[in-house]
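Supplementary Note 2. Why include the ligand at all?

Several targets in our set were suspected to adopt different conformations when bound, so apo predictions alone were not considered sufficient. For every target with a known small-molecule partner we therefore ran a joint prediction. The input for zinc ion is given below.
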Amino acid sequence: MTDVSTTQRRKLSPRERLAIFERAGGVCCCCGGKIEAGDGWIVEHPTALGLGGSDDRGELRPAHKACADAKTYGPDGDLATIARAKRRKAKHLGIRKPSRFPCSRDSRWKKRMDGSVVLRD
Ligand SMILES: [Zn+2]
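The joint prediction is reproduced in token form.
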């Protein structure tokens, strides 16, 4: 699967994770709440990589795991937005899915105005 914009995701070392956490003061970038010891948290990209967000260290923020999942997988989450952006880009570039319907332009057959079905030439 290719993303609309291909920002490479790099691995973070535990030290980098800690630096990101401390810079943000341990505050979740999604809900603004404090991330307590024992809370699951991840390093989040405020702008999703799939939407052209940057993977620069300065762009990274800690977030509760639950908050980040909602942001990523929710109905208006990043994945939905990324899928929408991809469809829009494909359409813009004139790439379209072959139609599933018989006698569509992708079919060898076409239906004439009088109702007869003939082989496309
Ligand atoms: Zn949160």
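Residues 28, 30-31, 33, 63-64, 67 surround zinc ion (CB under 6 Å). The mean pLDDT is 82. Comparable summaries for the other entries are listed in the accompanying table.
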